[in-house]
Structure formats: C-alpha cells, structure tokens
C-alpha cells in the first residue's frame, strides 16, 4: 500500500480527488461560507496597512512601557482602523447616501419625460425607415419584441430570486441583516489573527516543499496585492472623481453613475464599453445640449488619462504581466461560469496561476517526454 501511494500518478489522482471534494463541499456550503469569504478578503485587503501601523505603534509603545503592558500594538492598530472605517461609513451614510437617494428619486420622477424624449426621437427615424423598408422594419420590430418577451424574465429572474430569497420571510430577512453585521465583525477578528493564520498555513507545508511554496506564494501575494489592494484603491479614487465631476455636469444620478464607472475598471475595458455610453445617454435624456455632452466626454477622457498615466502606475505599480488576449479570455470564462463575480476574480486568479505556469512550463521543457530519446529515431 505504501509503495502504491508513492507513485506520482497515484499522488496526482488523490490530489485531484481531494480538490474535487473540496470544491463540491464549498459549492454546497457557499451560502454559509460567503460571509466568511468576504470577511477574509476584507482582512487580507487591510492586513498590510495594519502591519505598518502595528510597527509604528510598537516603536512608540517601547518608550511607554506602562502602555505596552496594557495594550498590544496589534490590537491598537486594529482598533484605530475600526474607528476610521466606522467614521468613514457614518460619513457615507450621513452625506453620500441621502444625496444619492435624492438624485435617484429625482431621476425616477423624470422617467416619464425621458420616455417621451426617446419616443419623440425614435418614432420619426422609425417612420422614415418604415417608408423606405416596410418589410424589414416590421420584421426587426417583431424580432425585438420577441427577444424582450423571451429574455426579459430571464434577465430579471436573478434579481427577483435574490430579493425574494433575502426578504421572502422574516427569518431570511434577519439572516440577511445578520450577514451584514457578521462580515465586519469576522473581518476584524481575522485581521487581528491574519499573521498567525498565514504562519500556521506555512507550518503545515512539508519541509521539502516549504521553500519553493513560500517563494511562489510570495509572488502570488505580490500580484494579488497589486490587483486587490491597488486596483480597488484606484476604483475608489476614480469613482469619487467621476461622481463629483458628473454631478457638477448635471448628469442624472451622477453620484451613483460615477461610482459605478469607477468600479467598472475592475473588469478590463468595461469602463469604455458601459461607462461613457451610460453617462452620455443619461446626460442626453436630461439635457439635449452639445456642450453638456462634450463636458461629460471631457470628464471621462481626463479620468482615463489620469488613471492610466498617474493613479494606476503610482498605486498599483507594475501590471499583472498578462497579455490582453489572456485577460479577455479569463474574464469571459469567469463570467460564463460564475457570472459577474467570476469576471471580477478572473484576472487575479489567472495572474496567480501564471506564477506556477512558468514552473510547469520549465518542468515540461526539461522532461524526457519533451526532449525524447535521440537514439530512438535511429
């Protein structure tokens, strides 16, 4: 039995079986594990600044022994971060949320006027096309109505299922609120123990593989840091810029649209595909003037220029090192398999796998299978 377990093929099969069981278990328990996964991601995101704050507080507390005896630097760093996050959340709830709600309510009240504007613009163009191409326009209209009739329930069903699952009963509503409070609580608990968790995971790795995995996981951590911490920071900066600028330009729901455009940068090219057209459409529906549309376009161009030449290079640093085709393929595969969440995690996951892909390629190029036996061809 021991000889059988030592065979490389058997080890690969057992590892694949363990991975399959783990993925199946995670899929079955995804509703329970989702809050913990979000909390762990938040703790991972905030761990480096807490480490830096802990080192600074440790130097200060060394000069104050009485304070060091009563308060650990790590606990003080986590507590300061908790206060900062709570103040920021309170500021958002007190100032940003009411303003965004006011903009959304005003936009909702103007929806009938927007529909009239669209109808006034679309109907003359449709009539002109109908006069010249009556059969083609009628066929196009029938196909468009059939598409909406067949696909609109499918488009809306994920949202309706999510809302009904969250608020269909008092119990599910309470569980939803509980998850909202559980995530920050567990995030700060995990943040306090994050260094010990990482050290514990490292200690579980066999000694013969520890040096290799430590070096490679360090590279993975560096890549994920460049994406997760840096890119989200960039999205917050860009979202704030777009929210303020579009609001000043008079774009309906400028705060919400601006923050959405900022976070579109998480998915490659999404800000170009959805961000600018959305802002231009809303601006055109509210005020059909070329200067306003030009101002919105200028805001977008300035934001993209600043993001590509100043903000991202300084905050994110080096890129993930992936070809654009690979990035788009990863985003498409992730979106197809796991929806919007899959699109978000496709890039960092692919970048992490690329670290081990280089070693796998080197191993394959040095293998006997690749090099072959020169004497066998004689």
Question: Which tags fit this structure?
Answer:
378 residues, mainly alpha, 15 helices, 88% helix, 0% strand, globular
Summarize the structure.
With 378 residues, the protein is mainly α. It has helices at residues 2-5, 8-28, 30-62, 65-70, 73-109, 111-132, 134-167, 170-192, 194-204, 207-248, 254-264, 270-286, 290-315, 324-365, 368-371.
Structure description:
With 378 residues, the protein is an all-alpha fold. It has a domain at 110-161. Helices cover 88% and strands 0% of the residues. The protein is built from 15 helices and no strands. Helix 10 packs antiparallel against helix 11 (254-264). The longest helix is centred in the middle third of the chain and has 42 residues, at 207-248. The protein is globular, with a radius of gyration of 27 Å. The two termini are 40 Å apart. The mean pLDDT is 78.
Q: Kindly report the average pLDDT value.
A: 78
Q: Identify low-pLDDT runs.
A: none
Q: How many helical stretches?
A: 15
Order of helices and strands: HHHHHHHHHHHHHHH
Strand content: under 5%
Q: How many beta-strand segments? A: 0
The assigned structural class equals: mainly alpha
Largest sheet: none
Shape by Cα distribution: globular
Alpha carbon gap, first and last residue = 40 Å
| Helical fraction | over 70%
Radius of gyration: 27 Å
């Amino acid at each position: 039995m021991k000889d059988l377990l030592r065979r490389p093929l058997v080890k690969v099969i057992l590892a694949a079986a363990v991975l399959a069981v783990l993925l199946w278990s995670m899929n079955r328990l995804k509703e329970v594990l989702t809050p913990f996964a979000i909390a762990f991601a938040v703790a991972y995101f905030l761990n480096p600044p807490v480490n830096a704050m802990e080192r600074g507080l440790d130097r200060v507390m060394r000069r104050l022994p009485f304070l060091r005896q009563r308060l650990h630097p790590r606990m003080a760093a986590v507590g300061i971060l908790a206060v900062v996050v709570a103040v920021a959340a309170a500021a958002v709830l007190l100032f940003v949320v009411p303003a965004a709600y006011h903009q959304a309510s005003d936009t909702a009240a103007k929806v009938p006027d927007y529909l009239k504007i669209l109808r006034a613009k679309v109907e003359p163009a449709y009539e002109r096309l109908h006069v010249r191409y009556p059969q083609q326009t009628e066929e196009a209209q029938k196909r468009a109505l059939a598409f909406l009739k067949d696909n609109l329930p499918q488009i809306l069903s994920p949202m309706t299922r999510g809302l009904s699952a969250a608020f269909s009963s008092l119990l599910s509503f309470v569980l939803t609120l509980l998850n909202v409070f559980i995530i920050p609580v567990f995030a700060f608990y995990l943040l306090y123990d994050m260094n010990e968790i990482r050290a514990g995971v490292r200690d579980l790795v066999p000694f013969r593989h520890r040096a290799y995995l430590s070096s490679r996981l360090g590279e993975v951590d560096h890549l994920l840091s460049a994406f997760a911490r840096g890119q989200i920071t960039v999205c917050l900066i860009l979202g704030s810029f777009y929210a303020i600028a579009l609001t000043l330009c008079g774009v309906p729901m400028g705060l919400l649209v601006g923050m959405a455009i900022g976070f579109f940068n998480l998915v490659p090219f999404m800000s170009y595909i959805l961000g600018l057209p959305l802002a231009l459409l809303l601006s055109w529906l509210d005020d059909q003037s070329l200067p306003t549309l030009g101002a919105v376009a200028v805001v977008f161009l300035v934001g993209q220029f600043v993001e590509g030449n100043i903000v991202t290079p300084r905050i994110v640093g080096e890129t993930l090192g992936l070809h654009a085709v690979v990035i788009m393929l990863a985003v498409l595969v992730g979106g197809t398999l796991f929806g919007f969440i899959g699109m978000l995690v496709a890039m960092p996951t692919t970048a992490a796998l690329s670290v081990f892909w280089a070693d796998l390629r080197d191993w394959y190029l040095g293998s006997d299978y690749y090099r072959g036996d020169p004497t066998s061809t004689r």
